Amino acid sequence: MSDRAADVEQALEAAERLFNARGVQSVGMDAIRDASGVPLKRLYREFPSKAELLHAVLDRRDTEVRSAVTGFVDSHAGSGSPRDRILAVFDYLAEWFAEPDFRGCMFLNTAGELGGTSETVLSVGRRHKLALRDYLAGLVAEAGLPEALADQLMVLANGAMATAALQGTPDAAVHARAAAAVLVAA
């Protein structure tokens, strides 16, 4: 990896960690410099504004989350029934919510913090949520269930994310999974 690529990766990792822990508005480029070890001049060369850095962080997070969800479902329910694969999404959420640094969904949190002032944040968040909805729609189609179920499952998943973040416990994923099981069986 080149020095430039390493600096970009370090900056993205530090920014994601700080934005997740403190929110976007309370984190300045100096804090990202300090946490990443990337000189401020190079940081601004790669990301001319904090908004551009945030966009890159959200794009990266989108890729990571989608890959993590599909990887989890494939490894935990890959040979199971299509209905098992749907419910495995909620098992993924339970594991994610139990992580010590879980602070909620970065897309929901950032949209809540900046959504009224940043069309970019809303656009990236919508794209992410629609991609996950499309993934669920594929699982729903595999199970031969009505397409509208994908939207209902997304509401459950997003509600669980918000609830888990506020309550500080992974229990919301267990409750959302139970509700999803009822919907899938109906």
Automatic annotation (TrEMBL):
Looking up Pfam families in the UniProt record yields: TetR_C_13 (PF16925), TetR_N (PF00440)
Please indicate if the UniProt record lists Oxidoreductase as a keyword.
no
Q: Which Gene3D superfamilies match?
A: Tetracycline Repressor, domain 2 (1.10.357.10)
> What PROSITE patterns does the database record attribute to this sequence?
HTH_TETR_2
Q: Which residues bind DNA?
A: 28-47
InterPro entries assigned to the protein according to its UniProt record, in alphabetical order: Homeodomain-like_sf, HTH_TetR, Tet_transcr_reg_TetR-rel_C_sf, TetR_C
Domain HTH tetR-type spans what residues?
A: 5-65
Q: Does the record bear Cytoplasm in its keywords?
A: no
Q: Which PANTHER family match?
A: HTH-TYPE TRANSCRIPTIONAL REGULATOR YJDC, TRANSCRIPTIONAL REGULATORY PROTEIN
**What is the designated name of this protein?**
TetR/AcrR family transcriptional regulator
Highest taxon listed in the record's lineage: Bacteria
Q: Which UniProt keywords apply?
A: DNA-binding, Transcription, Transcription regulation
